[in-house]
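Hi all, long-time lurker, first post. I run a small reading group and we've been trying to get comfortable going from sequence to structure in the token notation. Rather than ask abstract questions, I figured I'd post a concrete chain and ask someone more experienced to write out its structure so we can walk through it together at our next meeting. Sequence below, copied exactly:
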Amino acid sequence: MISDYFAELFVAGLFADNDWNVYFPHRDKGFDFIISKRIGEVEIIRPVQVKGKYPTDNKTDKSKYGYIGELTRTHEDMILAIPYFNNFRRDGTDLIAFMPFHTIKPHSKGFRCEPAMFKNGFAIPRRDYRQYFGDNGLVLLEENLNVTHINLD
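-- Answer (accepted) --
Happy to help. Here is the structure in token form:
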């Protein structure tokens, strides 16, 4: 099994590779890290929580697959990053959902966000959530989806 700390660092590395600044807290009491990026004259700032998915060898197919549980903190500008690992690749994953806060719903166990399905041992983006996965999901973070803007002028 891969640790959650690996998932956090893996996702943070992807943000850094895509020209985001990544800031880690001194103490983990909420968000795993904060990202920022200057777009023109505007600085975009987003808190991030990472919840890695690690299927067991005997996991059965599911029509909805993602995160259900507590979030230590929430914020209207936050991103819930869900890297979907599989049992065939242990060095990372090619499937990551970058979910804005409006896609995270209340649940009896806290919150739920299930942008994928699970079929034949792999996570697959659900039709209505495909835009939040991979490079396209990263691009959407730069667009006006409940973003806190700091004018630098």
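A couple of things your group might point at:
The mean pLDDT is 87.
The chain has two helices and ten strands.
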